[in-house]
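Students often ask why inverse folding is considered easier than folding. One informal answer: many sequences map to the same fold, so there is more than one right answer. In these notes we will look at a single instance of the problem. The structure comes first.
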C-alpha cells in the first residue's frame, strides 16, 4: 500500500513541476495578431503584399500579454526587430506591410484603437 501512495505522490509532484515550468507567455492568447505603428493598431492578415515602398518602422516591443494599453511599435506576434513597410499606392493610415520570412503580409488599421503614447 505504501508503494502505491509513494508512486501517486511522485506522479503528482511531477505533474505540478511540469505545470510550473510552462512559460507565462504561453498562457495568454489574443484574438488576432497585431502590430502598432504611428500610434495606431493594425490587424495582421494572411494577405500577401507584392509591392512595398520604404520601411516605415521596426517593432521595438514584443509581448503576448493581453492589454488595453499597447505601446507604439509593438506586436503580440512579431519579435523585436521585425520591419514595417508602406504599401505601394496605399495610404499607411489604411494599411501597412509586415515583413515575415521574406514575405510581406498586409496589416489593416483598426478604427477606434490607438496606442498609449
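Output (designed amino acids):
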Amino acid at each position: 500500500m505504501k508503494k502505491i501512495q509513494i508512486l501517486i505522490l511522485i506522479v503528482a509532484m511531477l505533474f505540478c513541476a511540469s505545470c510550473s515550468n510552462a512559460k507565462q507567455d504561453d498562457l495568454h492568447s489574443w484574438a488576432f495578431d497585431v502590430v502598432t505603428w504611428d500610434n495606431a493598431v493594425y490587424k495582421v492578415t494572411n494577405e500577401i503584399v507584392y509591392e512595398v515602398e520604404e520601411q516605415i518602422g521596426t517593432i521595438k516591443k514584443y509581448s503576448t500579454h493581453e492589454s488595453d494599453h499597447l505601446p507604439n511599435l509593438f506586436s503580440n506576434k512579431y519579435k523585436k526587430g521585425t520591419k514595417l513597410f508602406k504599401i505601394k499606392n496605399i495610404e499607411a493610415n489604411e494599411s501597412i506591410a509586415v515583413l515575415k520570412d521574406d514575405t510581406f503580409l498586409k496589416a489593416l488599421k483598426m478604427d477606434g484603437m490607438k496606442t498609449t503614447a
